Structure formats: structure tokens, C-alpha cells
């Protein structure tokens, strides 16, 4: 293994410009990926915050017996999708309205606002279909006047998230492919540049896996360096944007490490495909 | 040790390179492969180190058959063969000793055994004083000595030399040939392709003469017949 590592470093030393160029190209494609990842991450956080506020309110008809309402609250609490159920009485609704709209305090009179059951769904179950199902279940009670959950709003939110996820996946795959192709072609050049060495290795009885090893190490190192450089570039951009445009959140350390590891993996895979194909022709 | 049995080698383009060639080379034997360019000398050597496989017939090298040998077994077999070429095939960015050590390193030799082995073969080929010279700092004859040292470092059963003196002046040619004879005298078989007839006639080593892909003369068979 140490020989493979030494040979890989020799390849770097022998063609420093080409090596730097390939690392930089990989870095830029991963940088674009990193930037998009950062945007997606922040979009996701923002959407999460909005999503946390998704709430279903079932308004209770006036004159409903408190026992019936309590029974409905108990029923709702047993729904598997429900995180919390709260009963807001007419008095509490009035109190809340007065607090929130202090200057119109005098406008509100007792009995003007209906009592309601407020439900919050469990995380991961706030999608439009689940929200609508729960809403329909509440509408079935004859003392429930109306159920509000901002149907359009919930649906739009989800559409934005789905589009963002799809775009992220598509761009991620595209950039990964670009990086794979770049690594593949740099390894192809390296294989051709070292064809003489490879012929000699074969002649003296080196196994194919032994011949392949330095190229795999080279691809891995280039991917790793490209990944680290991309991370540094993304971080610098993040800081600049944070200072002049908008405060955003940064990747969790494990995610940043996974990004760099992905660079190394792309390097390894790209060189594995390329070296396998081109060694046949040497 | 090397046995060709009715070996034919054809290429999709260019027709047959070898046709029905049979011969046997014993352990420790020295044999010349002669004939004009394109006669099939290099093809025979390629078939021995399994760079090519016969179209029909069988090549056996150290008990391994070209018919049944798997690609995974080839490297192991090649470690028992030494090969040198007219153009030396040295790595230009490595010193003489690094070029030789390379052959050991890539076959996974123990690191501590490499230095002494390299020193031994460099002495054997008379280049101990130029261990740290780069190929371009050496004469053609010296470069071929490094290539021979590289071929010898794994203690091969046979040394295959494809026109080893083709690029050398007369004096260097004599030096290299003497080296090959010394190597043979120490027990290693040598198969040397050459079209230097003066060299061939200067000894009574076995001669296999090729012409248009066919083995047209084998001095060993000739001798047997005369006896």
C-alpha cells in the first residue's frame, strides 16, 4: 500500500499543473454542489419552521354541551397523527384576542368568538393529505361548525419543498456525474502518461490489482483534496453572504465530513471505472 | 522447460505470424532465435511471456499450459521469467538501482530484501559504481545492463532477450553478449532473438531459425539427425 501511495504522490509531483487543475475542477463542481446544499439546507430549516406552525382548528357550535366537547378532545388525542390537542373555550378565545389585538380590546364582547379545538400534528405527518384526513374526521362531529387549516397554504408549502428536494437531487446527481467524468478523464491521462511504467510492471509480474492501486489512491486523494477545497470555498461564501446578505445556518459537522467523504468516494469510483477501462489498452 | 507444440498464431489483420512451430528448450540451455525481420522471433518470445496466446497448439512454460493458464496466474509465471528488449524500457525518471528495485517492489518483495538483491545484480552486470545514475547519464550498453539486471533480480528460470544488442555498437554488443553467456553459465536459460549472424556464428549455441512464421532450422534437431 505504501508503494501505491508513493507512486500516487509521484504522479502528483510529475504533473503538478495537471493535478492541480483536476483537483480545482473537482473542487468547483463540488463547490456548486455545496452551495446548493447550503441553500437547500436553509430552505429546509425555514420550511421546517413554517411547517411547525401547521395547525388544525375545529370551531365548536355555540351551545354545545361541555361533555360533548371534552369527549371530542379525548377522541382527537387518540388519533395516531396528533401531537397535541388543546381546547380553547369561548373565554380563552376572547382573552387571546384581547391580548393579541390590544388596541381593539373594547370591540370584543363575550360570546362573539366561538370555542375551538386546536390540534398539532406530529412531525413528518404535516403533509396536505394527512392534514385533510384529520380535518375531515373533525368535520364529522355535528357540533363542529367549521374546520380551518389553511389548505392552500399547506399544499403550497409542500409543493415548494418537493420542488426544492427534486432540484437538489437532480443537481446533486449532475454535479456528481461531472466530477466523476473529470476524475475519470484525469485518470485516463495518467494511465496513458504512465503506459510505459504499466508495461514494465506487467512484464516483471505485477498483478492487475497492484497496477491499479496507485491510480485508485490518486483518484481518492484528488477527490479528497477537491472535497476539502470545495468545503473551504463554500465556507468562505457562507461567511461573505452571512456578513452582507442574510444570516444562514451552516452544515452540521457530520454533514460537512460526509460532503468531503463524498468527494473522495467520487474520486475513487471515477478512477476505478477509468483505470479498469483504459488498462486494457496499455 | 519451454515447449511449443504445433503453435500457430494468426492476427485478424496481417495473416499468420507463426505456423505450426514446435520445439523444446531445456533448463539452463542457451538458444538463439534468428531470422529476418517479421520472421516471428518476437512473437515466439511474446508467447513465452504470455503477452499473446496461440491461435492453435500449446505453449508450456515451467509446466504451465497456455491452454489452461488463467489471467490471474500470468503475473506469477512472469516473475519466473526475465525479459529484455532492444529499447531497454527503463523508467527515465529513476536511477539504475531504482529501476531494478521497482521490479521487486511491484511484486510485493519484502522491503529489507530489496537493497541487497539490487546491489548483487548491479555487481553481476558490472554497474555497481553507477547505481545512482539516471538512464540518460548512461551509455546504451550500460542501459542494457541495467535492463538485464532488472530481468535477473527475481532469479528467473529463463532470460528472454529480444534483439538486446540491436541498438548497440560492436564493442557494447560483445560486452552484453558476454554478460548473457555468464548468466547462462550460472544456470539461467537464455533465449536470445537476434539477426546478428556474426554473433550467432561465433559460438556453437543452439540456433532456431525462423522464416515467415515457420521454424525452418533447429541446430539441436540437426545435430541429433547427424548423430
Number of domains of chain B: 2
What fraction, in percent, of the residue positions of chain B are helical? 25-40%
How are the strands of the biggest sheet of chain B laid out side by side? 6-7-8-3-9-10
Low-pLDDT sequence parts of chain B: none
Walk me through what this model shows.
The complex is a heterodimer of chains A (282) and B (227). By secondary structure, chain A is α+β, with helices and mostly antiparallel strands. In chain A, 71% of the residues lie in helices and 9% in strands. Chain A is built from 9 helices and 4 strands; from the N terminus they run ααβαβαβαβαααα. In chain A, strands 2-3-1-4 form a 4-stranded antiparallel β-sheet. The mean pLDDT of chain A is 83. Chain B is α/β, with parallel strands linked by helices. In chain B, 35% of the residues lie in helices and 26% in strands. Chain B has 8 helices and 10 strands. Chains A and B meet through helix 7 and helix 8 of A and helix 2 and helix 3 of B.
Amino acid at each position: 500500500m505504501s508503494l501505491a501511495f508513493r507512486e500516487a504522490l509521484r504522479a502528483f509531483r510529475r504533473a503538478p499543473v495537471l493535478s492541480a487543475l483536476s483537483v480545482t475542477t473537482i473542487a468547483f463542481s463540488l463547490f456548486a454542489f455545496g452551495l446548493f446544499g447550503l441553500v437547500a439546507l436553509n430552505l429546509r430549516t425555514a420550511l421546517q419552521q413554517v411547517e411547525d406552525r401547521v395547525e388544525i382548528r375545529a370551531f365548536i357550535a355555540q351551545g354545545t354541551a361541555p361533555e360533548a366537547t371534552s369527549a371530542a378532545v379525548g377522541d382527537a388525542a387518540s388519533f395516531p397523527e396528533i401531537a397535541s390537542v388543546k381546547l380553547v373555550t369561548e373565554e380563552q378565545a376572547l382573552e387571546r384576542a384581547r391580548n393579541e389585538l390590544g388596541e381593539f380590546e373594547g370591540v370584543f364582547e363575550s360570546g362573539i368568538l366561538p370555542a375551538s379545538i386546536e390540534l398539532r400534528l406530529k412531525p413528518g405527518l404535516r403533509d396536505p393529505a394527512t392534514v385533510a384526513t384529520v380535518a375531515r374526521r373533525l368535520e364529522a362531529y355535528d357540533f363542529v361548525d367549521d374546520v380551518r387549516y389553511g389548505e392552500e397554504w399547506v399544499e403550497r408549502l409542500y409543493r415548494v419543498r418537493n420542488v426544492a428536494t427534486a432540484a437538489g437531487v437532480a443537481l446533486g446527481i449532475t454535479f456528481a456525474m461531472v466530477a466523476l467524468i473529470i476524475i475519470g478523464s484525469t485518470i485516463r491521462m495518467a494511465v496513458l502518461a504512465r503506459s510505459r511504467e504499466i508495461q514494465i510492471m506487467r512484464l516483471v509480474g505485477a498483478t492487475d490489482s497492484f497496477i491499479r492501486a496507485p491510480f485508485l489512491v490518486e483518484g481518492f486523494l484528488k477527490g479528497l483534496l477537491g472535497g476539502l477545497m470545495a468545503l473551504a470555498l463554500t465556507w468562505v461564501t457562507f461567511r461573505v453572504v452571512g456578513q452582507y446578505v442574510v444570516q444562514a445556518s451552516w452544515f452540521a459537522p457530520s454533514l460537512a465530513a460526509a460532503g468531503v467523504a463524498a468527494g473522495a468516494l467520487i474520486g475513487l469510483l471515477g478512477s476505478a471505472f477509468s483505470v479498469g477501462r483504459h488498462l486494457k489498452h496499455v | 522447460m519451454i515447449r511449443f507444440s504445433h503453435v500457430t498464431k494468426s492476427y485478424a489483420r496481417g495473416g499468420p505470424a507463426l505456423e505450426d512451430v514446435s520445439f523444446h528448450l531445456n533448463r539452463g540451455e542457451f538458444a538463439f532465435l534468428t531470422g529476418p525481420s517479421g520472421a516471428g522471433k518476437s512473437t515466439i518470445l511474446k508467447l513465452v511471456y504470455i503477452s499473446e496466446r496461440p491461435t492453435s497448439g500449446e505453449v508450456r512454460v515451467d509446466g504451465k499450459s497456455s491452454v489452461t493458464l488463467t489471467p490471474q496466474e500470468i503475473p506469477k509465471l512472469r516473475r519466473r521469467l526475465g525479459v529484455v528488449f532492444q529499447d531497454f524500457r527503463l523508467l527515465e525518471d529513476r536511477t539504475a538501482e531504482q529501476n531494478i528495485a521497482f521490479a521487486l517492489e511491484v511484486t510485493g518483495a519484502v522491503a529489507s530484501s530489496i537493497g541487497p538483491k539490487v546491489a548483487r545484480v548491479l555487481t553481476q552486470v558490472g554497474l555497481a559504481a553507477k547505481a545512482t545514475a539516471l538512464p540518460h547519464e548512461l551509455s546504451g550498453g550500460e542501459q542494457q545492463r541495467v535492463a538485464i539486471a532488472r530481468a535477473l533480480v527475481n532469479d528467473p528460470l529463463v532470460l528472454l532477450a529480444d534483439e538486446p544488442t540491436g541498438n548497440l555498437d560492436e564493442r557494447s554488443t560483445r560486452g552484453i553478449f558476454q554478460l548473457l553467456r555468464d548468466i547462462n553459465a550460472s544456470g539461467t536459460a537464455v533465449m536470445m532473438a537476434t539477426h546478428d549472424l556474426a554473433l550467432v556464428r561465433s559460438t556453437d549455441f543452439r540456433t532456431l531459425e525462423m522464416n515467415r512464421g515457420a521454424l525452418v532450422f533447429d541446430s539441436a534437431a540437426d545435430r541429433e539427425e547427424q548423430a
